[in-house]
């Protein structure tokens, strides 16, 4: 095989992934725009209501024309896409600010919440999963299985409401609704991390049980390798690829699924801003939010895929065979 053909074969999967990513981004933004367009909320009516004005039909029509809401859906979406290619995400219909500025102000808060949640999730899930796999069927395993089953059935917004009621209403120990510092991010982090920790613990436990029953573990035990070394070094090392894959999936779930939690705690991230945008039918922001969420999710998955290939080169070979 010539160098040119090898280069072509190597570039083909990359181009295919890039094309797939572009299709995903297009579909995500299209669906977001369509749902916004079909919403019964009228941004023109909301703008007059917030100003305390009772508009006439002619004033409403003029406002809709000013906001571009009188144009057909295809024209609105095509105009927004053209703006994106020019580097212009449009102007927020709710605040009148450039959408890019609103995104840049809110994105650090969402990333901080996602990163803190994924760190807490890993700190809880990895030790519990390894312990449950090692003592499979024991009291600890049964207790953790019951707890994870319970928390897996709880959506993060339900956990958020429970935490808000206990710590802010009953105990009055955290004034989370008026702060953006450590106290403000603590409960949102726990609310998003608890259901994810339960899910990841169950998934990783299954992986670790498979590793502990494999032949190489029997060989290590036959050579007299201590049990803690087997579990914490060898089993954990061989579980890194599925762990990274699961963590990447969890991070993507956090980006898209933390909106309600941000809204409950008033955490000023992208999710909180998107909730306000939906209430105003702010389609430029909704489309930009969908675009950013899709791109970040794809970048995280690409980074996870690259890390998995570095840890286990056979992953690349298997991907190529497929």
From TrEMBL:
Upper taxonomic lineage: Bacteria, Bacillati, Actinomycetota, Coriobacteriia, Coriobacteriales
Localization of this protein: Cell membrane
Listed Pfam families: BPD_transp_1, BPD_transp_1_N
Membrane topology: Multi-pass membrane protein
Record-given protein name: Peptide ABC transporter permease
Segments crossing the lipid bilayer: 12-38, 111-135, 147-167, 182-201, 240-265, 285-304
Entries under CDD domains matching the protein: TM_PBP2
PANTHER family given in the database record: DIPEPTIDE TRANSPORT SYSTEM PERMEASE PROTEIN DPPB-RELATED
Organism the protein comes from: Granulimonas faecalis
Gene Ontology CC annotation, any one: plasma membrane
PROSITE patterns (alphabetical): ABC_TM1
InterPro entries for the chain: BPD_transp_1_N (IPR045621), MetI-like (IPR000515), MetI-like_sf (IPR035906)
GO BP, sorted A to Z: transmembrane transport
Domain ABC transmembrane type-1 residues, every copy: 107-304
Family of this protein: Belongs to the binding-protein-dependent transport system permease family.
Keyword set, alphabetical order: Cell membrane, Membrane, Transmembrane, Transmembrane helix, Transport
Gene3D superfamilies: MetI-like (1.10.3720.10)
